[in-house]
Design brief:
Layout (H helix, E strand, L loop, with lengths): L1 E4 L9 H5 L4 E3 L5 E3 L10 H10 L5 E4 L27 H4 L4
Antiparallel strand pairs: 1-4, 2-3
The structure holds iron/sulfur cluster.
The site of iron/sulfur cluster has 15 residues, from helix 1.
Length: 98
Amino acid sequence: MRIRLDRTVCDGFGVCAKHAPGYFSLDDWGYASLIGDGTVAEADRDAVMRALLDCPVHAITEIGQHRFPAPQPPLTDEDDPAERLKTEENEAEWGFTR
Ligand code: SF4
């Protein structure tokens, strides 16, 4: 997992450094800086994700983790289009987001 911190968005709440002090440091005004290059060890993933999710201004983002589903081949005359319907039952396959 890799993260980045947009310091232009940071509003100095300090939540990130509380959750993951090994990855975020705060300056005298409470604004955060990343410690290191943003690479997060697997053992620290939960703490950093907590920091990411709790940042009130979404200044912390995960990078390089989004994968798009492989494109499907075009339908032929023999294919049943109903088999490709996106439903709640197969949402894990096509990435439905609520
Ligand atoms: S939680 Fe967000 S706003 Fe607060 S210091 Fe960290 S990056 Fe900045």
